[in-house]
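Recall the central idea of this unit: under ordinary conditions, the amino acid sequence of a chain determines the structure it adopts. In this exercise we apply that idea directly, starting from the sequence alone.
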Amino acid sequence: MIFKTNIDFILSLIKKFLPEVLVEVGFDPNVKEPGHSYGEKVEEKLAEKLVEIDSRFALPIKNKGKGRQTRKMQDITFLGNFINIKFGFDKKGQPNMVSFNRLCDKFLSGEIDAYYIISIDGKDNKVYIFNLYEHLNHTNTNLGTGQTMLKEKKFFEYFDQEKDYTITRKDVILKLKEISKKSHQSHIDLREQQEKKRQEKFDAKLQLL
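Accordingly, the structure predicted from this sequence is:
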C-alpha cells in the first residue's frame, strides 16, 4: 500500500515531468488515436524519469530469454507496489487495465495488496492515481479477452483524488469472486447465443437443398 503523502509525491513528479516527456516523444494530438499512438512511448519515458530521480522506484525485472517484456502487469514499482501507467486522450472509453487472472492471482497469493493506476489524459494533462482494487465497481471484465477494463467516463465523474476509498481485503476478494461469476456466465451466454445463430443459418441453408 502507498500512503497518501507518497501518492501526492508521485502525482507531483508526474505533473512535473509530463510536459517535457510529451515534447521528447513528439506528441501530436492531431494524429488518429493519439492515445494509442503515443501511449507506450509516454509510459516508458515517464517510468525511466521516475527511476532516475528516486531510488524507491524500480522498473520490472525482466526474465532472460523471454523477449522485450514491455507489457507486464506493472510499468514501474514504488517500494514494491505495482503501478501501471495509462496514457490516453480524452478519456471516455473502456481501456484495458490488466488481465483479470493476474488481478486475482497476485492478490490472492499475497504478492500484492494494491494495484495502482496512474491515469494521464493527454487532452488536458490531467493526472490521477488510484488503487484499482478499491474501484472494481467501475470496471468491466470480459473473460473472452481475459481483460479487466475501466469505465472511464463514469469513473472520473465520481472519483475524488483527495478521498479515502480504503476497503478490507475480504471485501476485495468478495468483489473479485462476484465479478468472476458474473463474467463467466456472461461469456457462456454470449457463446450460446452465437452458436444458436450459427445453427439457425445452417438450418436455413439446408432447407434450400
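The radius of gyration is 20 Å.
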